[in-house]
Amino acid sequence: MRASRGRRPGAPDTRAEVLAAARASFAEKGFRGTTIRAVAASAGVDPALVHHYFGTKDDLFLAALEMPVDPREVLAPVVALGPDGAGERLLRTFLSVWDDPEIQVRLLAVVRSVLSEDGATLLKEGFIPVVVGPVLAQLVADRPDVRVPLVASQVVGLIVTRYLIALPPMATMPAEDVVARVGPVIQHYLTGDLP
Amino acid sequence: MRASRGRRPGAPDTRAEVLAAARASFAEKGFRGTTIRAVAASAGVDPALVHHYFGTKDDLFLAALEMPVDPREVLAPVVALGPDGAGERLLRTFLSVWDDPEIQVRLLAVVRSVLSEDGATLLKEGFIPVVVGPVLAQLVADRPDVRVPLVASQVVGLIVTRYLIALPPMATMPAEDVVARVGPVIQHYLTGDLP
């Protein structure tokens, strides 16, 4: 998402071609099977140019997903305050982003894409373990490999019920009620006793 | 799902025509907007014949969704034992159905359909509030309108992460580990203190 921060995006055609090549590669070969080198070759440019436009492979992935926000940046202040109360802080931050109508419509497009049969690989290989996982793992003292996916299971369920299908009353519940009701669950997954 | 219990389904063409009319109506008008009378008219049969083939509108809805199991029957023994320990029992039953490969592939087809833009109405108007909601509501002493959707938010997240996208390790976690780790969360939503 570097280009969205106001940096001159370079020749628009070349940038768009790199992004199209990246999308095709992520869709066809998944997150792990995609390399900056192969994307560059497919777009007919030097790998250094891909790095220049998009940063790392994770950055390129977020750009290809057309994420309107960078979850790593959004979550950084949540993580900085440590594990105490992180469940509620995490949800409050999550809701402040998702409840914004303009951001929500763009995030829903991403969700529909990664929930499709072709897109699931991106979510399970790329988005959760590579983009969000390492950030959340900083909040847990042990077993991030179990705790982070459990957090994901509740947050994904919240995305589907509150935003994707808009199930009452999940869809209309004031954000602070969601924080108070679901926050303890996120906290349990992050720091509670797990068998 | 009455017809799947071995009852003679009647003239196959008529039954199939009623089901096709029901699917079209649920898809176009949603759960609330569909009536047995309108489905019968659309299929050119008497409403009594629709009742005879499919039972109630809820039954017709489950048949139209092609659910391989009737969640009301599956959940009945869970509910019969009351709220104590219901979170773990609910998950154990849920997993015993979903972890069966033949049932899972059919349930995933239903999930893909109800998560699509056209299908979401069926999930939020029909499946959760009408089919599953009243069963789960028997387990809660107060505020079923909040507790049941919260349970749904975690169960839907489990379906998406464990089955739909098969996120490691949610996808490979032994059922009893899921029961032990997520069961307390379901129990919290059913009977815990909620602000």
From TrEMBL, chains A, B:
Gene3D superfamilies: Homeodomain-like (1.10.10.60), Tetracycline Repressor, domain 2 (1.10.357.10). PROSITE patterns: HTH_TETR_2 (PS50977). It holds the Pfam family TetR_N. Residues 35-54 bind DNA. It comes from the Bacteria. InterPro entries: Homeodomain-like_sf, HTH-type_TetR-like_transc_reg, HTH_TetR, Tet_transcr_reg_TetR-rel_C_sf, TetR_C_16. The keyword NADP does not apply. Residues 12-72 form the HTH tetR-type domain. Keywords: DNA-binding. One of its GO terms (molecular function) is DNA-binding transcription factor activity. The keyword DNA-binding applies. This is TetR/AcrR family transcriptional regulator. It comes from Nocardioides eburneiflavus.
